[in-house]
Fold each of these.
Amino acid sequence: MNGLVENPMNVSKRKSNNLIKTYRTEFALILILIPFIIMMSFASPYFLTTSNMLNVASQICVIGILAIGQSYVIFTSGIDLSVGAVMGLCAMVMGLAMEANGILFGVILALLTGLTIGIINGVLIGYLKLAAFIVTLGMMSIAQSLTYVISDGNSVTNLPEKFNLLGGGKVFGIPYFLILLIILFIIGHYVSIRTRPGRIFYAIGSNEEATKLSGINVSFYRTIPYIIMGLLAAIAAMVQSSRLMAVDPTFGRSLELDTIAAVVIGGTSLMGGKGSLIGTAIGVLLIGLLRNSLNLLGVSPFWQGTAIGAVIIIAILIERLTNKNK
Amino acid sequence: MKRFSLYVMIVISLFVLVACGGSDSTSNSEQTEAEYSIAYLTPGLDLPFWKYLADGIEAKAAENNVSVQVYDSKNDASTQLQNAQDAITKQVDAIIISPTDSSSAPAVLNAAKEAGIPVIIADIGTDSGEYESLIISENEKGAREVGEYLAEYMKEQGWDGPVGQVTISLARKNGQLRTAGFESAMTENGFEIADIRQLEDYTRAEAEGFAQDLLTAYPNIRAIFGQTDEPALGVLKAVEGANKLDEVAVVGFDATPETIERIKEGKMLAASVQQPVLMGEMSFDAALSVLKGEEVEKEIYVPTILVTKENVSEVEEELKRTVFPE
């Protein structure tokens, strides 16, 4: 399969002038991103300001964290439709636990919730070979429903003051959540291209049969991305609740589609086996900047969906064009 | 080469798109040369009520040479905060917000406070935080009025069955007030509340489903109260679909032109109608007063109108002006 040849995992083995070939889609996206930023800075005087860029960072943080996990899932040719709902459930569990027993208890419980759901998703998909689309669709419904069950449809508003540190605290003017996002992306990228599990994720998505024949426990490695996803959903829940200092039962709604869009814009194929977290990072950034620009330019909310949809389609078009000519 | 030229075309078309957006907004601002700029954060333009409220704000703003930009929160607390950040970045002079629910408002109020931007809250209410003025309908009184009218009608018919409610979010202050107002009118007149269902999406389809379930679960139910415009019509559709128009009365809160038609036809018994356009106008007036340094009341009440078959032709003209503009 082409996927294996194209794969970023081979970068280290190649000469550096192959870097451009390997990251062709990513470079093409940057070639769009940079002119876009330049144009916007002329179109709106507020665009290229520190405060606006920090705003954009806070706006993309949650999608960014979830998109890391979603990338892994999609590398293995899977999909996770439950991310938004799971994040909502983690947030609600955490909020209620925090109200009663303090920050640490809430954080632990949120991580456990994400972990449990990730394991359930992963085992059903990896070991029992059920279709990822259906399993996670079901899980989305379950998580949403459980959120309402435990909250009785109410919001949690009495989060401990100190919890605001993650969403509101800064060090040298850089918000903590931004540092967290960057660290997660660096670890995520390193794992995906430099470690054995990372390479296996690509291999499974690229050619599952061949991977199995080479003696790798495919079921096990198919499970891992969903577990990572669950944990990241819990972390995203912390960021979100800390920023808003409230948890309401609609948290995370339709975020699964935003994360999938970000991953796909970044050049990762839904068929699995190719793509990179650098692409995903650019995809997340592009969505965030675009949404922000539409607001700054005063584009009517009715039109914004059209603009974002058009960009998603154009991005896939670019991926197709840059990947075919070899 | 062909592919390369296609790629260039895409980049160019993106440029043109951004350029159009940019020039659009500049031409707008040149036209008006507005004295003040105001941001209006709406929970979701898919509900006609919020569109009418926005219309009211925009109409008044045009009269007063103030520019308004509408931001759609899409019923999501996080999108709402992002939009608020973008508005603050654009250095608006004031923010009018209809929060997604009372618990999501404080995050916006804090961000605005940090930037020194005054906030007017139009409807819903907030759990905490500083704001200049809250403009809100007499929710409890309105719900009580429609409940009393319904009780009167049910006594005339000799009905003694219980009634159901399809409520808006009970995390919203206005939801609590409407539910309580209706309930007290019913219980004081000796009628029981069988059950309530809480809306999440505020769509006609969702409410229709809830009402169908109520009709199935409580075969002796005699009336259903739909707490906002589209959902109330969904309730009506369910009752109509079950062929129970003669046995089950439908009352509502809020109105669209369709609601008025249904009341004229006698399919819907009555509705307590908020005046969103008037609410928008009053919110704008409050914002303008604040900007001019004048005192405004902390809470300003907008009366509701009880529309029944008897008075519908009398009040129709008034409704067209203050409830739904043409």
Amino acid sequence: MSFKKLYKPSLALIGLLIVCLIIISGLYIKKEKPENHSLDQFNQDLKRLKKEIVRSQTPDESLLAKTENRIQNIEDYAIKQKIYHDLTELSLEKYDSLLFYKYNHKSLKLAKLLNDSVEIGLSHWNFGAFLLKKQKYADAFYHYQLAQQAFSQNRHPYYEAKMLYNMAFIKGRLKEYTESEALIYKALPYFQSVPKAKQIYKCYTLLSFINEELEGLDQAAHYLKLALNTIEQHQLYHLKASVYNNLGLIYHKKQNYPKALKYFNEALSMEVVNDQPKLLARLLDNRAFTSFVSGENQYFKDFIKALNIRKATNNKAGIVLSQLHLSEILWAQKDSLQAIKLAKDAVATAKDIKLKRELLKGLILQAQLEPHKAKTYIEEWKDVHDEIEHKVRKQRHKVAKIQFQTQVFKSEAERLKSHKSFLIVLLSLGTLISTLIYLYIRQKTKARKIKLKYDQEQLLQLKKEEERNRIAADLHDSILGKLFGLRLQWGLLGIESNMKIKNEHRAHLNTLKGIEVEIRNLAHDLKNQATEINLCKQLKNIGLQKSKIGGFKFKLHISQPNIDKKLSQFAKKQLLAITEEALQNVIKHAQATILSLTVSNPENTIHFEISDNGKGFDKHEYHEGIGLDNIRKRAQDINAQLVIESAKEKGTTIKITLNQITS
Amino acid sequence: MKKIKNVLLVDDHPIIISAYKQVFKKVESQNSNLRFKIYEANSFIEALNHLKRFNQKRKLHLLLVDLKLTPAPNHNLLSGEDLALQVKESFIDVKIMIATTYHHNYRIHSIFKSLNPDGFLVKGDIDEKEIEHAILDLLEDTPYYSKTVRNALRQYVSNDLLLDRLDRQMLYELSQGTKTKDLSNILPLSSAGIDRRKKRLKEILDVIENDDKTLLQKAKDLGFL
């Protein structure tokens, strides 16, 4: 019931194997060519080994050793693990415990090495399935639980739910019905959400079994009907007969014989039943027995028929059942001799194949058939019953212990984890604080350095200013005065000569006067630090500075080198301010990659253009901010025409046109 | 009969004094009825020494003084302006002639307010012929102002309504490189008052920028400086 049939399709397996082999061979071909030959050999060996496992033959030692040796030499753990996994599945299917243990242990070890939780889960699943087959319930439960944890860790909910079902199944077998039920209800919601019809059906069947054991027959019938519904919904008709059989048995138990018969009949009328001899025998047997109990006994021949089918298929458990039923009927028909013989056979077989439930039934029947030996039978019955109880209890305790230990381990792990996370938080907090302190100190030192530098610059500036003022004062007061005096004196020299020389004389004096004016202006400018603005240089500076911040490329094109002379100081200042404002806007809003600035000089006007390739804005939607407003005002101040062109995703262009100054 | 006119020349450059003297000699030679007695001084102290010789009977007729001289704080003399004021008080009929290299409108305006000189020459404007004219005009009670001074006066008349004396002084001081924080030591204003005035000036002159340079440039363009 709980065996994994999902991994069965041998075709898919072979396909996987081929892919796997291709990968391996691919790796080897790439690495070393001389190994090709031995690689082929290895693949052949592996194939042979698999074939032998599939045929349930015991592979010979040399083949095992050879393949094992080669697998050991594979460097890629994942491939190695995969090969072991495949071999495990094959040996599990063929129930070869020796090979199974060997391969699955290796598979599990590698999966753990690879930290592949799915593979770890699959390995435990294999162990669980194998042990369940051997009815080692506690050990199987242990492995299923580990598998379930591995799958839950890896968020593999389908496999996790399957593991939960298997655990529930084991619990059911150990008669811990409530726990079993709880586990089913953990698994069932996932199966329903996907939905996985067959698994749902299995869950309901298990629930029905549990309730039947607890004598909740109505509830058991209810679950079976739910299983039936699932079957109907998902058209799993081949399972229907089996459910009818179970329903029949439950109604039989409820002594509602007509209804039970109805279900058995229904099942038997299905064609699929003929392909399932085990089920067919069971149905025939059950129907006949129900009919007999109800007092009609119209299907007596079916007992024989079922027994024959079971004998033909060597279904020992089935034979026991048939024999027990037949014995009971023969006893009722007063054929005690035959009945005693059949009962004896049944008990012997049941003992042989460890069919405990039937063994107990057989012993009771024997006690009824042979009242004089009843005491012996009853005592034997008691022994068997005690043994069963003892075994179940032992297993149950073992499971409880496993569960308890897992729980303790889990809570300990959680405690450690929370402790760990607390430490991590503390540590990271500490790191954060020390980083902040470090950054703060660094920032402060940096600020201090900057301040120092600034102060020094200020001082230097002051010194420069003083020096400039001194030079200006010297120029103004001393040199200018002397020049003036000289000019006056020179003018007063009564030069008696012809007109030409007199005029030349006058011209020289005027030149001198011009020099005075020049010096005077120079002195004044020195004092006022009104050094001429170099527009080209300043624009370049602004552009480089802002493009670094804004992460765009700055292109400057000035068509005429002496543009400085064609603009007043005031105009240049405003243009620089506009550029700065515009570039600030680009940094803030435009997300541009290229910004170009062009200054040209067409027909006595200066044309100034700033354009970017950024995201632009819609003029109708845009509320003019302070930035654009400032640009507008500045343009007005220098009597310039301002045009701003922009559209969404088309960039922005600011065009300014103003008159050049007439010299 | 030749009239004798007493003239005091004050300038710290001997070469200029000597040039002035030659101009006076030239005027003398061209006007037979004029005779100048010339006193020369290279500093305030020398000038004060000369002034002691003059009184109501022995009159000083003409003072030609430079504005920029080494200050003599002991005698309350910081510039030629101060000397001229003292002379004007002492001698009623004296003619004051200023000759200076200063050419800023404000400075010219302020001298007119305080001194109202009869002659005002900006050295850069003039040559010996203009000095001759100036001397002759002054002696005939006609004021003489050189070109820069005339321009400054014209602009003063047209702009006087907007800016008061303190505004002009503030602008002037700023233009001379005085820092705003030092202005309250020079002007009879608190630093808050200076800020207020500056703000108002910027509004009047339509200056948006927050720096003084633009303000001064605008003031200069408009002739306040």
Amino acid sequence: MTVIRLIKYLSFFFLLFLLLFNYLFYLDISNRCFIRIKTSFEFSNSTIKKALKVLRYASPKDYQTVCQNVDTINTNVSCGGFGGGCFQHGEEKNIYVSTYRRSLDFTVGVIIHETYHVIQYKEGRPSSETECNIAMNETLKKVVEF
Amino acid sequence: MEKILRKIILFIIIFFIFYFIINSFAYLDISNLCYIRISETFSRSNEETIRAAIKLLKRQDREAYQTLCSYVNEIFEKSCSNSEESGSCYIKGSKAIFLKYNSDTSDSAIKQRAEEIKKYANYSKNFWNSLK
């Protein structure tokens, strides 16, 4: 009886762990991609995860760029404001993407835009919106089909 | 016997409650294993024409309906990139299609939406088949 109860408790906690892990992290073992998603008051990480999957299948090169340069996506509102994105110098590999209410392709674009800011910072180059916007537009051209 | 009957009735009640809840935010056709979530914007929506367009496809174009059920799992009633000029689109790497908001509820508007849904469902099918 005690063993059965123990199995029940362990199963419950394992399930809870899986749910929490799935909610707070993006994991793609085959592509060695592991990204932490910091949740905001909107309590939804689904758009971010969908956007990462869009990149994975529709633009694998950009997906690798994101996986290699970003380890945390924070969905809280930051300098990009509501429905925008932001990269703050000093917060290496950490980008802000607050686009829950926006469309999926817009989220994809913001992730790419902020990833290029991370690359610029990593390479010691000055922040250039032009380069990030070009990268974002190129990705969106590959992803969106009208 | 009475216990079994009670359980069956309870199951039917729970089934219908779930069915109605799911139907409030999605298109559900159990017999064809078709589930498509319909997401709308808070300020305005014309979800009924999307449902009517799907039903029209089911009646008139079975092949397109099967493609839709297999390759689309979410329909958003908003323009791509949140830009009115962008219009409708399909996002590669997903099973989501975006339909531009249209307040028109006439039969011709429903027919037009059905054509749009069919077009983007085919885009999705082509994309996923290209990866195979």
Amino acid sequence: MTGVVLGWTVISGSTAVPGSGQAPGIPVVVVGSSLGLASGAMLGATGGLIPCSQTVSGDRCFRLAAAVGGVLGLAGGLMLAAEDRERVEDAWVGAGVGLGAGVLAGLTMKPFAQRVGWDDVLVVGFLGAAIGPVWRGAAVGAGAGMLAGAIGWRVDSDRTFPDALGLTMVGLAVGGIAEWMIRGINAQRGNDIAMMIPMNLRF
Amino acid sequence: MTAPVSMLASRLLRPMHWLVWGPLCVILAACLPSYGMTSAPSPRRTCPEPDRLAGVVDWYFPEGSEDNEQLDLWCQEVGPVVIDSLPMASFGALRGGDSLAIAVWNTDAGAGYLEAFVRTEMGVQCAGPASRLRPSATHFVVLVQEALRRTEQLRPVDESWSVPPPVKEERHPGSRLGVDEVAAKCGLSVVYAPAGRNGGKILDGKGEDKGTAILSTLPLRDFIVIELPYEAARRVVVAATVHDDRGDSLRIASVHLIATPPPWRVLQTGNSSRLRQALATVDALHLAEARRSPLADTSLQATSTVIAGDLNTWSVRETTLKRLFTHFRDSPGVLDEPTRGPFPTDHLLFRKSDLEPVPVDGVLPHTYRRVDDAYYSDHHPIMAWFRFGGERETAADSAASARGSLDKQPVR
């Protein structure tokens, strides 16, 4: 929560002019890349949660997934923040909305879960904040992962419910982190923020 | 295309950024949770009372103070350890070459109909000190998790973080008995170590706690209690040894690992709460073995060991199970049937002694199975037969193999 407010304060206080072509100042670059790092790490951890738990070194795998997610998120955030303050503002707004939604979800869950404390509510909030800036990519990824997981569960008798859930979470993470990278690359190219989703819908 | 990429590369490679974020990523990837155990209690521990079980029980604690602070709070609310090392009834000795049945079951506090299970699956005619084994039955050990105990020694307390609410139970026919009461009714030896309260209320003058237990038709010895690293709830492993008439020993540990760690613990431990508790169990058993072993080389294991219980695994490929199998290399593999809902939560693992000749050969072929009747618990029991000493197959082994491979219908 403090991080979001602090990040927003830094962006608001920056002297860079949006759309002017003027490079944002170091504070904006730092808060933009921080958000990318934190969001990517949280998404990486979420994606690694179940697949890593199926390996011999599950604990290390989980941390590696978080670190890889963090590095990719950092790269995307850095590319984004280095080009345009406005895009960083959008990302922080998304993080703020996600944080609120996450905390709300955590608060809803708390009375029904025996061992969920306030720190756990905050963690769910942080997950929301991680998804918020890249929610489109995360949603598409989670949907694709869920579909693949459900098909795998039905077709392969060795696959179980945790495998299907794991694929959904991997999809969420990959989709979210991919959006960070795509946004960063688009920012470098001066393209629009919107992400292209290659898909055909037939009815 | 080349220009933006090189510009991007130069930006990403700016030393200022990587000096800040690089070490953070490395720290994030490198931290591992501690699972070291010790027999010396933390100075702040007030529970269990230091002298109470001295010489009777070897007690192991997590190293460091953070786990112990929480464990102490939970420990203060539960009753004492129960030990009846000798069976009240006379079931006779286990002879060398005989087989021993080992059953493992999470009874979901008072929900599981433990008395019916012992009568039907283990073959005991329960009559207190006059209890007898059916002619076709073998000596047995039952490892119980979420075992219920009712006692006047508990005070009423409000539910809190360290006093969880009672388990919601499906009522079974017959009396709702604690594990020590079932042991007395069926003439069995018992060791029970409580982990936490089962609600704070006093009903009919008795409060309730729940923990891990071992019941047997054989005398129990060499008691070990292991308080596992704290992961959102106190968990306790209880272990003891059983022996045949030649003095061959088998150590048996009843294990209950955490089910669903909350999100904050998942992040803190790298999603390795269960792994941490499992490795702590292995560490404590190794310390206990080293303390008692007659062997000069403490890396060798003198006592054959079974650890079994509710490991709360979501799948048979889980890290916890894979790592445990590396320590318990003579294990019978995994069951292909779930034991709680769709999840394979309950397991039995084994490691032979490094002594020659091997005192306990291992699980008899085709005897490791799930019991299809859950006896009102939310877990199915699992069972296997072991053979004590000797290379030759005895008539009892053949009977046990045949019995284990049958899908028995419960009789109540």
